[in-house]
């Protein structure tokens, strides 16, 4: 074995350095992927008031908003699988009009808590891509998640 040429065993020092560099890069990529997954999983729900508080900055940005269904505003068109309703924080707050293309949830009643994910459009309507209904009875979540139908 010739140590003067930087060889240790059957693997040269430069090969070991390259291997260590590759392992460091792989570990960094894995760490970044884990951080991204954790960040996306830790979603913060905005209230309707907080969404309106963002003003024009909220338009076109993905958001998750929680509130209560205003039952008298629910409109369902089964032929188009189009659900429209309003949601609000409380009886005095400004309602947020929501449109959702997909299946209508079974448990869709007045004043039930709802969480929608989507984007606010320029006309002030929230275009939901996901809809989550929570069962208010006994304050235990009976979560039903619905995903928007693919666009034609």
Kindly list the characteristics that best describe this protein:
single chain, 152 residues, alpha+beta, OB fold (Dihydrolipoamide Acetyltransferase, E2P), five-stranded mixed barrel, 2 helices, 23% helix, transmembrane helix, membrane, cytochrome c-type biogenesis, heme binding
Question: Mind explaining what this structure looks like?
Answer:
- The protein folds into two domains: 3-41; 46-147, Nucleic acid-binding proteins (OB fold (Dihydrolipoamide Acetyltransferase, E2P), Beta Barrel).
- 23% of the residues lie in helices and 36% in strands.
- It has two helices and nine strands; from the N terminus they run E-E-H-E-H-E-E-E-E-E-E.
- The chain has helices at 13-41, 48-53, and strands at 7-8, 11-12, 46-47, 62-77, 82-88, 96-101, 113-120, 126-133, 144-147.
- The strands form two sheets. A five-stranded mixed barrel has the order 4-5-6-8-7. A two-stranded antiparallel sheet has the order 1-2.
- The termini are far apart.
- InterPro entries: CcmE, CcmE-like_sf, NA-bd_OB-fold.
- It comes from Alicyclobacillus macrosporangiidus.
- It holds the Pfam family CcmE.
- Keywords: Cytochrome c-type biogenesis, Heme, Iron, Membrane, Metal-binding, Transmembrane, Transmembrane helix.
